[in-house]
């Protein structure tokens, strides 16, 4: 999944290179808090084994072999934030020393493999393995989590590729960067991972977890969230998955009519409707992704983007407010509330 | 003390020539690729130590100028300006006492080939409709399609070439100094440095484990057995790494480490560095301008 | 019967052009115990890997048991099977070759691969475990064993194959004194059994005791001596030159002794 240089437009890679920095800053802070002075050797060794795991040839079926990334595995062992740092360091060294993956594309690669992959994998593992799990449950959860996580990362990479034709193309119509539109890039990446590399990832994660469960079970203990919170997350997850059902509903929601719809309903367009309607040009008007001919896929992507934005903002607010209240609490001696734990 | 009896006396029948099941084992293939990775690191360090044009520049200037070139490659759109950038790579390599031919070969055979394979289907009418140049029915090659494919391939080759220049002309310690001087936090630089060393050590160890398997491989195992072996070895790597982290940490503590990492970085720029940087910046700006003019025509 | 191994003009260059072995001419006869000695970096381990078909020379030829040993030859499954079952390699770092989940499986791995029936495998495993004093450790995982136990397990995993030729890379490194003495005993027994052994070591005294023949590799990766240990060890000047011994001076009050000293 290492994206080389030249495929992504500056509009994409600059944004992602900048976007990854706050994530690194937060990860570094969390790692420093939990590991303190041991962070350097542990992160360095984490990066080393992340690197090496990517070099193993894993037999899949017949005589075919593939490479795994091991992001979920590393997240299970080190925790998602430490995994983010370790995998990022490994990716930087791969780009700057071994020529694997681009340098300008580091932001994108780190987002896919050092953020999406470990976080999705870790939280899914935690959700599925519950508390006090048997070795076989751990193994199965790890396998499923790894499979889903890497497909998610692949879809992200597919989106990064797929939006290029919309961002930049000449008047003549030819693509300037990665030439495949979303309707080709996303399914291609998703299928590649659903059918092959996802299995490699699952095989590797399950295999190693099984071995470690016998010898160092303590390594694999991912503390589950408090019970009520867990069901809340599960519930949210179900709702997110049900989003596509919205595509089945005909018509427009009550009160959400556009100017034209109002006109056709009552015969005229009230006052400043037109002026105000043109005031804000939405990025994804009508819950559709601009330029996508396939409405359903566009709707899904708009939904995903929306969920991520909301979740991100909510989490950010919680972190900031939590710290503020902690600061005030520390100053006045009250017991503090820990900010959202990893 | 008596030991198991001997078997297999006498000579061995030579390997059957010609038609035979040619199959290097998984262990051998992986050992070879690991070996190659390690050798390349040493070769690149040697290249980066030669007194060539780029090697003699200050580390920060070198990194900045090469990145500038890579960014320019992502800004220009005309096939002609891209071609110029594609040629700039081997030219700079030659000026840095490396072989332009092997530079070009390396870039084209890896990044270039992949880009070509990826781009070709996009040149068909199905993906990029337009004026047909090579009629092949449903997968006819169109003019905008071929232009897009050519643009992509040239851009990827140019950009990858500049990345290769970083690898070929910057020693690892130099790179760390440049990153540190560019205000990267000391913790990150220290982690990168240690990770690099540990990676090389681990590469060697894992190569040995693959050779050890090769030496005990009487007949190729089933896929399941091979998989079990691979995952077991990965678990070994995990355990070993964590143990090494503990050991390294103890060693660091014993040497007085208590937190912040301080490194001695003495980077000094000379007039030559600034000349180069200015030339580069002006050249890239001019190239982008020319590119826009070419496209406006 | 042909010699077990015949190396003629073998050179090995790394990709960077650095030479690892230079014009090696070596013949190993059946039943011989050969000690390959040299300073660190002289190429001892590389020589052993060439003999085991794990590395291949850039020029020169290698023959094993009368047949050419090349990368192509080892891709022939029948040849590979025959070759690998005759030659066992014990690596310097035991960890590198121990990969089964417990010691018993480790010992059983080789013979099971050869297709032997379970009763025979069982017998071999128990025999070897008893001989090597690891029979109490059979159900333990390899990583829980001490350095010496791991070394013995590594040697055992090769012994159960009943290989005729054993290649040992620095077998005494990391072993406590008692285990080192035990190792010498093992080598003696192998000699009586008629096994061929090639041992890479920089431990001159151990080599002198057990080996029939000593081959010296210089720091230039060339064979500079090849003969019975007493003869080779008598070449004082040569040994100094190849950095296997050094002049060691110590004082007894006012008198300074100088004599050669090896580690």
Quick summary:
The complex is a heterotrimer of chains A (342), B (297) and C (263). By secondary structure, chain A is mainly alpha-helical.
Can you describe this structure?
The complex is a heterotrimer of chains A (342), B (297) and C (263). By secondary structure, chain A is an all-alpha fold. Chain A has helices spanning 10-35, 39-53, 71-78, 80-97, 106-129, 135-162, 164-167, 182-215, 227-242, 259-266, 273-277, 295-332; strands at 58-59, 65-66. Chain A has a domain at 10-224: Arp2/3 complex 21 kDa subunit ARPC3. Chain A contains 12 helices and 2 strands, in the order H-H-E-E-H-H-H-H-H-H-H-H-H-H. Chain A has a two-stranded antiparallel sheet. Chain B has 9 helices and 2 strands, in the order H-H-H-H-E-E-H-H-H-H-H. With 297 residues, chain B is an all-alpha fold. Chain B has helices at 26-48, 59-75, 79-95, 100-119, 143-169, 172-181, 186-215, 223-254, 271-296, and strands at 132-134, 141-142. The termini of chain B are far apart. Chain C has one domain: 3-Layer(aba) Sandwich (Rossmann fold). Chain C has helices spanning 44-51, 71-74, 77-86, 103-113, 118-131, 147-159, 177-193, 204-210, 229-234, 236-241, and strands at 5-13, 19-28, 33-38, 59-64, 67-68, 87-90, 165-169, 196-201, 213-217, 223-227, 246-252, 255-261. In chain C, the strands form 3 sheets. Chain C has a 6-stranded mixed β-sheet, with helices on both faces. The model of chain C has no long low-confidence stretch (mean pLDDT 85). Classes of the chains: A mainly alpha (342), B mainly alpha (297), C alpha/beta (263). The interface between A and B is large, with 74 and 91 residues.
